[in-house]
Amino acid sequence: MPKIKLAENTVQLIKDICKEFENKESELINVLHQVQSKLGYLPAEVQEVIAKELKTSVAKVYGVVTFYSFFTMIPQGENPISICMGTACYVRGAEQVLNEFKRQLKVEVGESTEDGKFSINCLRCVGACGLAPVVTVGEKVYGRVAPTDVKKIIAEYKNH
Amino acid sequence: MTDYKMHLLICGGTGCKASESDEIKNRLNQLIGDLGLADEVQVVLTGCFGFCEKGPIIKVLPDNTFYVQVTPNDVVEIVEEHIVKGRPVKRLLYTDPNSAEQISDSKGMDFYKKQIRIALKNCGFINPENIDEYIARDGYQALGKCLSELTPEEVIKEVKDSGLRGRGGGGFPTGLKWEITKNVENDQKYVVCNADEGDPGAFMDRSILEGDPHSVLEAMAICGYCIGADKGLVYIRAEYPLAIQRLKIAIKQAEEYGLIGDDILGTGFNFHIELRYGAGAFVCGEETALIHSMEGLRGEPTFKPPFPSVSGYMGKPTNVNNVETFANIPVILNKGAEWFSKIGTEKSKGTKVFALAGKINNVGLIEVPMGTTLREVIYDIGGGIKDGKEFKAVQTGGPSGGCLTKDSLDIPIDYDNLLASGSMMGSGGMIVMDESDCMVSIAKFYLDFTLEESCGKCTPCRVGNKRLYELLDKITQGKGEEQDIEKLKDLSVVIKDTALCGLGQTSPNPVLSTISNFEHEYKAHVHDGKCPAGQCKSLLRYDIVEDLCTGCTLCFRNCPVGAISGERRAPHFIDQTLCIKCGVCFEKCKFNAITLT
């Protein structure tokens, strides 16, 4: 992965967040949550800053980032698409919906399209099982999605 | 307080919010305001009603009218007809699918008739963002009683006598857990609420936190009083933004009222509650992993003993209970252990909340007494199988559980009976499957889940489950060999016996349980190269029967990959090399001209 140089104010932002949690190592997960919500993702360079601030090793930070599925080291697309792969959605055909998204956007799970407009992810149960299968694009929730609806959903965001 | 003549309760759970219940609320408020009725009619966004299949739901009090599948466009009619003229909007009432009768009062609906609500008692009744409404329904009464009238020993005895067992899945007696933690001497102890609901398809903990957060806070304070802890932590999934938001509001309000914080109700008892966020790791539902995650570490489990009751968060004695377990506590203390222990079976007291989902007519959240049979749950409450298909199996206990078949329909559901039938209670997810679900694929689906969630610490789980998955994948591809089914069984037993924690020890359960109930289906894949349920794509082939095809071009127009060709009014043809076996043509054809083999 090419190395990126963090802007000075980004570094400051990370430092401020760490400080908010008193630079405590035990607050690592809370720090990561905050930083990701501000920056969108947690590339290696960001992890290095966090490790330094919390006086722990980069390996430990990396270990935690990669352990939890909520944290990502890859930037998400402008319109992050999540397909619920909870059991309720699965038995109501979520896999076919996922395959259709992959086919239409020509990307795999965890990847973004070349133009950066879309990324696909799977998530485990949003708890709206009455609406299965469920797809979320950003904050918007689509219920009872069939493979034939996929084209329409993508089109809604294409020209944004 | 304003004396409202009418209340409109709108479900504000995650499911209904996804179907625009916020917009419905806004429009209602606006219209009611425009008509100058704001002092007489109150609109309340509540927690989950449970009947998610028919959401969004509006309940009108005092007449108890129950509207289903309401859209923002229905608001004008509800206000003009029902509120102004007093005539219910008939077309929005629930229609009983069996009698085809419209039912106005939810109490008359089969979905609610057999339910007893203890943990969910306030969900769908109160505004979860208003502590006064919780207090009006006996809220914080139990805490007050404990602090002023009862000793910790007396409270623990009451909880023990009630027979309450852990609702997170383990079924460990709650009172006993409290007693053990109490008896460990230490200057600092913790109460932890496990809200890391990871079982895909189970959403009761989220619904309780969204619909009745104070019940959990109250119970945590009571637990703190009993075990001698002054600090409580709620470990909640970051994926539940609404529950987090409502918990934060609830904690703030309870602090303002002096029901949480220092010197609660002037009794000298201190108890503070903080939130800790999970970050998407199923294994963190296991209590030792959860504790490590709260400490900012990878959520890897460690050997027990020592149990968290002895050495938990930051090495201090920690009592970990699940959300639903806590939600039972205030009710038990208000109504008494004797009342509670009369509900349920001999060894499993009280009720259990189940998230009913999958191929069932009434998807939703239900709470039934222990001992209710699966048949009652699926057919009476759940309204039977979707699209008139045949019931095949129900998976309970999520990825750690197993499936139950037709033969188990009349078993009274409790912890022990489910274990004896090869499944488990788990957190209460119930996924119903019909004849079109392939059991090999279901087992593969769960293994895929376990693989992703395995923390990788111990070899049986990390490597063994991978091998199990590969075997299952091979079978669903039609490449299975004779000995593969035996291999699956042997490997499953080894993993069960040798894995480090609950995740690994239970991960082969879906495999073992589907083999023991549906071995013929595995054999059909291996011996005949067929998937009886018609789900395994590699084993499917769609063809058009020339004689039946009218050349209507419907399949041609709907095929997403252009695999179908043919002239108008002439038989069409599927190019097998292009076909992705999505089945759209099969569903769309009006002349049954497409075969699936």
Automatic annotation (TrEMBL), chain A:
Residues that hold [2Fe-2S] cluster according to the record: 84, 89, 125, 129
Gene3D superfamilies given in the database record: Glutaredoxin (3.40.30.10), NADH-quinone oxidoreductase subunit E (1.10.10.1590)
Cofactor: [2Fe-2S] cluster
Keyword entries, A-Z: 2Fe-2S, Iron, Iron-sulfur, Metal-binding
Cofactor note: Binds 1 [2Fe-2S] cluster.
A Gene Ontology molecular function term of the record: 2 iron, 2 sulfur cluster binding
Record's keyword annotation contains Amino-acid biosynthesis: no
SUPFAM superfamilies: Thioredoxin-like
Family: Belongs to the complex I 24 kDa subunit family.
Name of the molecule in the record: NAD(P)-dependent iron-only hydrogenase diaphorase iron-sulfur protein
From TrEMBL, chain B:
Record-annotated 4Fe-4S ferredoxin-type domain positions: 540-569, 570-597
Keywords, comma-separated and alphabetical: 4Fe-4S, Iron, Iron-sulfur, Metal-binding
Ranges that cross the membrane: none
A Pfam family assignment: Fer4_9
Keyword Iron-sulfur: yes
SUPFAM superfamilies, per database record: 4Fe-4S ferredoxins, Nqo1 FMN-binding domain-like, Nqo1 middle domain-like, Nqo1C-terminal domain-like, Thioredoxin-like
One GO molecular-function entry: NADH dehydrogenase (ubiquinone) activity
Family (UniProt): Belongs to the complex I 51 kDa subunit family.
Protein name from the UniProt record: NADH dehydrogenase
Organism expressing this protein natively: Draconibacterium sediminis
